[in-house]
Structure formats: C-alpha cells, structure tokens
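ok here's Formate dehydrogenase H, selenopolypeptide subunit:
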Amino acid sequence: MGDMGHVQWPCPTLDHPGTPWLYKDNRFDTPSGKGQLFATAWRAPAERPDDEWPLVLCTVREVGHYSCRSMTGNCAALQSLADEPGRVQMNPADAQRLGIADKQLVWVSSRRGKVISRADLSDRINPGAVYMTYQWWVGACNELTRITSIRSPKRRKPNTVR
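and the structure:
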C-alpha cells in the first residue's frame, strides 16, 4: 500500500506524512499528553423488570464479527465458527421457570415487538437476563427494541433501549 501514495491518519497538518499508529510515542492530543477519562453519575435504567416483563434483554455483539457483519459476514473462517443466527441465550433456571427447553423455538417478546428464536441455555448467562446478538437479520432482536430520546449528556448514548 505504501507504493499507492496513501496517507494514514492522523495527519495534524497538510504536509504531515501520516502516522502508522494512533498516539505515536504514547502521547495523546491533550495538553498533558495523557488520555482523559470521564465518569458520569449513575442513573437507574429508565425501565426495570416487572411481573409482566421479568427479564432484561441485552443486545450484544457476536464474537469475531464487526458491527452488523457487513464487513465480516462473508468470511468463511468466521462463518464456520458462527452460532445459529438469531438465537436467544438464557440462564437454565429462567428457562425452567418459563417451561423452555434447550434448543426449543420460542417467541421472544418485549413491550415493543415479538420475534421467534431458538433458546440456547447456558450457565454463563446471568439469571434475569437474556442475550441476543444483533448482527443477524434472522431473529431480528432489533425488532424488540427502540432507542429512546433519554441520552446521557456526556456520552450522548441512549440511557436505555426500549
């Protein structure tokens, strides 16, 4: 690529040759040269589990894939490692309480929508939570969510997904 005449970011000036890595010499672009971390005050989630909706949905990234799989979805090596698309992972105790068997097809519903998925029971999943990866169009866990307008003023990220 070097022969192609590219310039790699960051380039702080027009005549800068580029930098092959961010924060060259371990120096951040701050007055002190150190990275700055900010903490925000904790706020309770906008929604909590209740009798009608007893579980918390966590939408998570599948290991090995980037974002929505647009760049990694066609990689044969990653496809061979992929789990079944659209599965819902849950703790066996929650599944037993709800009468759900491992690998059973189930409806996953929220206050906002409903999708069909295959149950994947695992002790790795916290009781009271279910996990779905958002990279797959199958299972469509995003049908269960809607981003609220409640945003953290510092992070500018949603407080919750509804």
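+1. The chain has a mean pLDDT of 79.
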